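quick one before i forget lol
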Amino acid sequence: MRAHGSCVQRHGWAVLVLLLFSLASAALGQQQTGSPIVLNGLGRATLPLDGEWQFHEGDDLAWSSPGFDDSAWQPIQVGRSWEGNGHRNYTGYAWYRRRLVLPPETVTGWTLAVYLPNVDSACEVYWNGALKGAYGKLPPNPVWYGQGGAKARVVTLGPAQSGELAIRVWKAPIVFLSRPEEGGLIAVPMAGSAEADQGLEIGAKYARLNAAQFPLWVARFAGLVGVVTLLLWLRYRKHLMLLWLSMAMVYPTARYLLMDAPNVLPFRVTYGLIEPLVAINDMAIWFLLIALLGLQERKRLVRWTWIIALTAIGLELVDTICQFFDWTAWPPHRFLTIDVVTTLPAIYMELWGLVVVFAAFGKRLNPGRWILAFAALLSTLLTAVQDMTGLGERWTHWTLSEKLNAPLFAIGGSPVNLQMLVNTFLLLAILYSAWRYSEENSQRQNALEQELRNARAVQQLLIPDVIPTVSGFRVESAYMPAGEVGGDFFQILTIADNGLLVVIGDVSGKGIPAALTVSLLVGTVRTLAHYTTNPGEILAAMNQRMFARSRGGFTTCLIARINADGSLIAANAGHLPPYRNGEEIYIENGLPLGLVADAEYAETQLQLEPQDRLTMLSDGVVEARNQAGELFGFERTQTISRQSAEAIARTAQAFGHDDDITVVTLTLLPAPVLQA
């Protein structure tokens, strides 16, 4: 009996111990989550919340409760994405939980906070069941900032005490540019006083700003150049090279603001803007290369460059348009499909820069242009390799892009990699080539202006400044070229028996070619006047000379011979008819000079009376046009034809001067009265 009683007693104690252990375990399961972290010596310092947290996929706000039993949850290491912890391709919601234990001697007089260096994609922070803050914004219409710690966040938990920390994380759907491992608490959270954690946040911003010093200075320099060249283009619209250079300078500045600046923008804003900006930058550089490498005459190359550039921009704009909608709520992989279909072709289109560079091979270029070609070739190749291996790294698992992006050295704490060096080299090569292009263009412009001045000087010798004085006539003239060198001409030559030979004409075209034709015709008139004064014969000879050298141009011309007795013989080659005393005179008209080799010109005869005024003018008067587009016209011209040559020219000029204006007036004076 004693032995039996002793055995029962021993079993009774064992059952009691097991019962107490079970009750303690149950209580512990309700109050303790996973392995708590004891924050010894925290005070006003910071401690990493590393180690294992409790993790569970899905979403239930009850999981924020301090009394929730998470013992069945999976332990997970923070400081690495949840994909890196085995939850491959998982997007959506998941929870992290960890109990923080503060020793009693450390919980007085300060506020507890948690510092979140990097969360992918957004999260809410709960402390003892109460929502305390957020990193970004959870759906609907979520806001997130991508990986990289660009938007580190301090969340104040409240007075220092022990408690349950629960973090509700949401991961955005996968896109084409997603990294190989994403989702969750990418960096280890830090616990500490609010002041200490804010110090960590400020330090992180400073480190980010310091690391981006090199891109910042490149962005500032490029932005300044872009503004200056844009202003220059607005003044000199014909120089498209300035526009392309200005557009090429936009991307370094925009990239810094979107991706490297301390105040980073939300992911959807950055994703929606950076891709079309890349395509626009490619287009600007391609056309800048075409201009600087002298490829404008390659019409097929220019046409295909437009096609490729606009197609790439259009593809990238599809992604931009999608950012106006909450595509995170779309069916799975819908946006990913759109993203892949639009991004992959755009990446391969970046190789078009190689076609542009190779098109310059065989051309005779100065060293600066070849440096530009080499820089563009190197940049295009490197960008293409990085995009093909890096942007799709999640899918290909190629690591070449990581090696190319590895820092080579640092400048003032700012790491510099190969891509930065090559892009800076390209930027400097573009600016140097643009400067050389501007200098060469300036030299050509100066040479052209000198040629115009020389042509103007020659023309001044051909256009009479002093009208010959002939007894019995009062002759006036006005000549107003539209440019440095005009296409109008006139001659007033004295002939035998106190007669005059008046010639007025208008050469098609402007500038130096027109001036050369004027020189040819004036020389012909002066030579022929020594042999004949018949207007028809002179026009026929001028026509043959013009036809032999016109190369498609033509000239209108009116010639009148006025004798001392007022008899007039005129011939017309397509020019405006003259006016007599405000009335148009009919002169038989012929073809303009230079159109038909054997053209003939009939002569018309008439008689001027004393005080008759003959007015001959060019079409610059009739075709003067005001700002409303209204022509001066024949009616107004006839009305003012009685005025002096200078008055007629000034009236037409004031109305709207966009063509050469030439006016010659001749008045037959009465014969002097002889006194006995």
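fyi The chain has 18 helices and 26 strands.
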